[in-house]
Amino acid sequence: MKKNNSRKLDLYVYLVVLICVFIMFMGTFLSYYVKTNKEKNKNIIHNSVLMALTFNGKEQVNINNIKPGWNDKLEFSVTNYSSDTIGKYKIVLEIITPLSNMVDEFFVYSVESTCDNKDTTNSLINSSDTVIPVVSKELNGGVITPNTTHNYVINFKLNKNNKKYNNTLFSARVRVEEDK
């Protein structure tokens, strides 16, 4: 009788194991089927701007003992590495140490730009002989298409006609930010 009970117990264990293996097989098949069908019907949209700012030399102007006729420049480029997204950006002229506490019409900057792409959607930021502010200033309006580089040169100068700024300090930095 023990042998008969042992066979029944073995049979039940085999049946339970077989049912568990069958359920695991069906679960694996079902999860694979659901996953592959969901991925086929799903549209993935990736809209992000991958912009990089590259300075050709320095990112900041630091001048001690500034004299009339002084000039300096910052050269940098903005590149959109995205393959499908148009980016908008602004140039921030961050004044760290102003030349004085008041705006002076003899102390000016200009922004010159070039683009390596002829697409008319690109919008460059340009400015000619604008008075340098005492606080930071945002230059808005840059639009860059995918796989494009915008090159910039910001020229700072103190006109020769001005004699009051001998031996003074000026410090400014350039940043580029996403314009929303």
- In helices, the fraction of residues equals 10-25%
Strand content: 35-45%
Radius of gyration, whole Å: 33 Å
SSE topology string: HEEEEEEEEE
Mean pLDDT, all residues: 83
Shape: rod-shaped
Lateral arrangement of strands in the main beta sheet: 1-3-8-5-6
Count of runs of 4 or more consecutive helical residues: 1
Give the low-pLDDT segments: 41-46
How would a crystallographer describe the biggest sheet? 5 strands, antiparallel
CATH class of the largest domain: Mainly Beta
What does this structure look like?
The protein has 180 residues and is an alpha+beta fold. It has 2 domains: 1-44; 51-178, Jelly Rolls (Sandwich). The protein has 1 helix and 9 strands. It is rod-shaped, with a radius of gyration of 33 Å.
List keywords for this structure.
180 residues; alpha+beta; Jelly Rolls; 2 domains; five-stranded antiparallel β-sheet; four-stranded antiparallel β-sheet; 9 strands; rod-shaped
Short description:
This protein is α+β, with helices and mostly antiparallel strands and 180 residues long. It has one helix spanning 2-41, and strands at residues 51-55, 60-66, 71-80, 87-97, 107-115, 127-131, 137-144, 148-158, 168-178.
What topology emerges from the helices and strands here?
Blueprint: H1 2-41, E1 51-55, E2 60-66, E3 71-80, E4 87-97, E5 107-115, E6 127-131, E7 137-144, E8 148-158, E9 168-178
Antiparallel strand pairs: 1-3, 2-9, 3-8, 4-7, 4-9, 5-6, 5-8
